[in-house]
């Protein structure tokens, strides 16, 4: 419903969306539905949330063409994009991460380890993606962050087809631990080298 109003220019480019209560009343849905719709539209490139100010329309087309490109792309192309994105993210996160970022990254890494140990392949893949997304979230470049978010769904699907056990994730846990330490120590060069090694293995 909100997407339709953006596309039909009821909510114009650069305009501020109505407040949550106003949207709830206008659309006849609950707060959780409004928040989920806004989250999706942010991820799809239609909206930008500015904390403490409001939610703004930034595109009437979104990045749906990017999504379509990912869906049509070859697996080899996806891996190449992943490599380019993650190498740059690894360099930047080592410089820009905060202590709060480190807590989130550490938590994702611990979950990854536990899922690999327990042998839960689906949960392990999700935890691996969450770890790398946490790095992207902390890199200090919102475009890189969203590009990784857009691509990660397809990486996750590819991993689900490639891996039937958590063996490779368990074997690369140490490399991920060392990547975390390099980020913690703000060593961009080491972060980049470790990330390259991880991508070549997983």
UniProtKB/TrEMBL annotation:
> Which controlled-vocabulary keywords does the entry list?
DNA-binding, Transcription, Transcription regulation
Q: Which residues form the HTH gntR-type domain?
A: 1-60
Q: Which domain of life is it from?
A: Bacteria
Output the Pfam families linked to this UniProt entry.
Answer: FCD, GntR
**What InterPro entries would the database entry show?**
GntR_C, TF_FadR/GntR_C, Tscrpt_reg_HTH_GntR, WH-like_DNA-bd_sf, WH_DNA-bd_sf
Transcription in keyword set? yes
| PANTHER family in the record | REGULATORY PROTEIN GNTR HTH, TRANSCRIPTIONAL REGULATOR, GNTR FAMILY
Q: What is this protein called?
A: FadR family transcriptional regulator
Q: Which organism is it from?
A: Sphingobacterium micropteri
């Amino acid at each position: 419903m909100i997407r339709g109003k953006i596309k039909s220019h009821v909510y114009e480019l650069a305009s501020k969306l109505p407040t949550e209560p106003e949207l709830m009343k206008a659309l006849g849905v609950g707060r959780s539905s409004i928040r989920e719709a806004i989250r999706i539209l942010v991820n799809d490139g239609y909206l930008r949330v500015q904390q403490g100010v409001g939610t703004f329309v930034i595109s009437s087309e979104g990045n749906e063409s990017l999504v379509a490109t990912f869906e049509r792309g070859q697996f080899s192309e996806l891996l190449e994009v992943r490599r380019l994105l993650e190498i740059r993210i690894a360099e930047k996160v080592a410089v820009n991460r905060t202590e709060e970022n480190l807590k989130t990254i550490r938590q994702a890494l611990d979950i990854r380890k536990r899922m690999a140990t327990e042998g839960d392949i689906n949960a392990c893949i999700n935890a691996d993606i969450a770890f790398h997304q946490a790095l992207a979230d902390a890199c200090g470049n919102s475009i890189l962050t969203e590009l990784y978010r857009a691509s990660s769904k397809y990486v996750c699907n590819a991993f689900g087809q490639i891996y039937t056990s958590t063996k490779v994730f368990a074997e690369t846990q140490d490399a991920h631990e060392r990547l975390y330490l390099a980020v913690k120590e703000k060593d961009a060069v080491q972060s980049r080298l470790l990330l390259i090694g991880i991508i070549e293995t997983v």
